[in-house]
Design goal:
This protein is α+β, with helices and mostly antiparallel strands. The protein has 5 helices and 6 strands, in the order αβαβαβαβββα.
Amino acid sequence: MASRARGGIAATKGILYAAVPLATVGFGMFLYFTRPPLFEVSTDLADPPAFLAEPHANQQWLPRSSALASADRRIQSASYPALTGRRYEGALDRVYQGVQKAVASARITITRKEGLELVEPDISTRTAPRDDQAAVPDVAPIPVPRPEPSLMPALEAPGDVLLQGETRTLILGLHFDLVIRLREDAETTSVDIRVQSRYGSHDLGMGAEIAEDFLDRLDAELLGIAGG
């Protein structure tokens, strides 16, 4: 009887241990068949934020097209009609501070930045000596050739700040690449986000969840200056 009891306990433990990975796979399959077949979403369908460096990953047995078709954009519009960018009645630097806090709380790691000179103070203006204390260099600086236009990183438009990053989902641990765009326009600042699954042609609906979670956190950080 004792051996049977031990055998029953061992079998029960085996079932419980197997239930976790089986439930995870089952959850993934549920999302695969119930969520739209997209691997990328953007809050701006007409002009999605551009990646500073296009993400590249070995897809192996999960091939997909290199670019989204207009049909994919229509699918997103129909599936996630509430996934839109934000516009705040605040200066670019103020909104950028909120974005930094929202990024940290959303567990997003920023890997590349462009346009920070628009939101960060010029260090040279704070550390430069006064005219009466300016030192005259013994050796004149050597002129450096201007970089070729093709080699210079360019923003999408004047006044844009781009933040490229990555994150992972909590349950399935899936990798996602994303880019956040801040664009100043008169007295308002718009924020858009583009989220792309690193592997496969189906993000299981998690790309939209990542984007919406970030935007909700940003709204909370900038509560009181949201515009229409």
